Amino acid sequence: MRNLHAVVLAGGSGTRFWPASRALRPKQLLPLAGGETLLAATLGRIRDLVPAERTWIITNPQLAAPIQAALPGFPRSQLVVEPEPRDTAPCVALAAARIAAVDADATLAVMPADHVIHPAAAFHDLMRRGAELAADGRTLVTFGVNPTRPATSYGYIEVGEALPGSGAGAYRVARFREKPDLQTAKEFFVSGRFLWNSGIFVWTVPALLAAMEVGNPELAGCAVAMLEAARRGDEATLAIAFRRAPKISIDYAVMEKAPAVAVLRAELEWDDIGSFVRLATVTGQDGEGNSVFQGEGTRAVLHEADGNVVYGEGRRAIALFGVHDLVVVAVDDAVLVCPKSRADDLKVLIQRLRSQGCADLL
Amino acid sequence: MRNLHAVVLAGGSGTRFWPASRALRPKQLLPLAGGETLLAATLGRIRDLVPAERTWIITNPQLAAPIQAALPGFPRSQLVVEPEPRDTAPCVALAAARIAAVDADATLAVMPADHVIHPAAAFHDLMRRGAELAADGRTLVTFGVNPTRPATSYGYIEVGEALPGSGAGAYRVARFREKPDLQTAKEFFVSGRFLWNSGIFVWTVPALLAAMEVGNPELAGCAVAMLEAARRGDEATLAIAFRRAPKISIDYAVMEKAPAVAVLRAELEWDDIGSFVRLATVTGQDGEGNSVFQGEGTRAVLHEADGNVVYGEGRRAIALFGVHDLVVVAVDDAVLVCPKSRADDLKVLIQRLRSQGCADLL
Q: Less CB within 10 Å around the terminal CB: N or C of chain A?
């Protein structure tokens, strides 16, 4: 088997955890994994899968310093910094170029920095099986999670025929489906043919380049230019090629058009904690259905309150009295109160904050 | 006319504005009067009514230092500090003793420190009319406010016959009524015979002592002992007499049993801002019915939010998104979220805070 490298995508800058998350402190840097950051937990999860010198983080220039500050022991040489933020396809191409320059036989396991996955051992098995499937140098491997509810916040993978000789739970991908409406999500849920798209991929560099050539030749051209520049150590050309690459996601540019995509059914607990509403994934719930995250020094006091999500940091009390199904977030310089049902629409509020002179808090 | 003295009762320590108010920072010390404290606004209101040397504040030992800190210019000799907190009857007796010791002809206008009253000129007229009525040395004068709604949070005064020769709006008091239930409040409201009890009184010292003798002889004995001790400058005896006085309110001990009580109909705006729900009295409301108090550096951002009450202090944003009829309070070390309909029950939450190890925040 080729050498497996882990590529942790840590360039995301979502606003769905505002005011806990900020431009310079996105979700992957929130202490949501039992006190450590989701990024640190992701690194911990792959520690026994690949050695440190084959563990890479890729992020944008803005987040490079916060990430280094959060991970003082992480080697600078393994942190790939994009010349500028450009969607996931150029990002993945850059990571592939950097890694292939030092290891021509690399197989890449590409994964988001901010997901919760248990147990680690099942994840390791899955990545190794993915690497075996990808070893033909043609197959792009994805991982699908058994839906536990008709979620509308995830993309779905429709499974096709079983892959012969590849063990249980290995299929061709019939189709990728974007986030569905609730009715469609319910149909997906009952059909049994749909898995949540985990956003985790395994592929070799040749397979990736070939799929880019099929899906987006312009992207493929930039990717090849990056690869060659990285091999030569020509940073200037590498940056130029990156900046020329189309701003497009890896899903649109590659996955949805690739000829040979496999999906492995992932038998593990997985959550992308896409908003405060999913906080229970990391905090659990009390007897009244409240999910409470308390940072150091924070004291949440809930009285006659149920179904709420509370996130607090800093030395403060957060008292909820007689309220239901709210999200209440309190950090040093900002407080948010909204119904759980609106927690997925925070971008609307973010716009308002921007227009009302609060851009400094974003 | 005898010399009018103003006695500001500043010993209250309510919890109905928690977490803005605390044991050492009760409502009268909140900056609810256009940036200044309610206590300062009360002093401002009486500045043109009585001279500084006839303006007194009475409070308990715990609040003496916070009040002096809040009013650096107020003369220490005019601040009467109770030897210990004991309800309003001993408090009023102590103030009367202190003042009578320096001015045997004093008439006292006794008023809470934490009410909102406009305009000041109407208030002055009213106090002067009260002093005239009280000049007979027998009449206790109260002030009643025309109800603007069937409030259940105020005591009521039932007006009796008009007082002959005392001008418009002067009546005997038929009865004092405690805070009514809603049905009774509605009956009071439509009857036109009931006024809100403003908690403001005017009387001479002899009239007060005589009424105490009728209503509560034990209290009267202590009051006389305080008066004599104050005249002699015997602080030790004064304190002993105060501590011996029954813990009882001036309403129960005196007003409800006094033979000659008059009420003047107060034609002015009056509110005791009894809880956050009444915050609009000092902040007004925006187009969506939100009442917002923003301290220095606080930025409240409300989006698709109506009917809420927001109180914020310190450098922070308070964002309400898609919520209705909530009270949201955020200060440096505490946040409160509760429905407006529960804002009058905060004592329940305070108990919970106490039992959950948060007594330091009370």
A: N
The DSSP result for B297-341, as a single string, is TEEEEEES-BS-EEEE-SSEEEEEES-BSEEEEEETTEEEEEEGG
B287 min Cα distance to partner chain A (Å): 17
pLDDT band at B15 (very low <50, low <70, confident <90, very high): confident
- Do residues A15 and A329 make contact, with C-beta atoms less than 8 angstroms apart? no
pLDDT digits (tens, 9 = 90+) for A177-187: 999 999 999 99
Q: What is the pTM of this model?
A: 0.92
Name the residue of chain A whose CA is nearest to B330's CA: A335
**B77 burial type by CB count under 10 A (0-12 exposed, 13-18 middle, 19+ buried):** exposed
| β-pairing verdict for B194-204 and B156-162 | antiparallel
- What ipTM does this complex have? 0.91
Please state, in angstroms and rounded to a whole number, the distance separating the CA atoms of residues B242 and B97: 10
Q: Which residues from B are below 8 Å from A304, CB to CB?
A: 342, 348
**In the 8-state DSSP scheme, what is residue A54?**
G
Q: Is B214 on the interface with A (CB under 8 A)?
A: no
Q: Indicate the SS3 state at residue B295.
A: coil
| pLDDT (tens digit per residue) in A8-66 | 999 988 789 999 999 999 999 999 998 899 999 999 999 999 999 999 999 999 999 99
Architecture, CATH, for domain B3-271:
Alpha-Beta Complex (3.90)
Domain ranges across chain B: 3-271, 276-361
B75: Cβ contacts below 8 Å, ≥ 6 apart: B52
* Distance from C-alpha of B200 to C-alpha of A113, rounded to nearest angstrom: 65
pLDDT tens string B283-333: 999 999 999 999 999 999 999 999 999 999 999 999 999 999 999 999 999
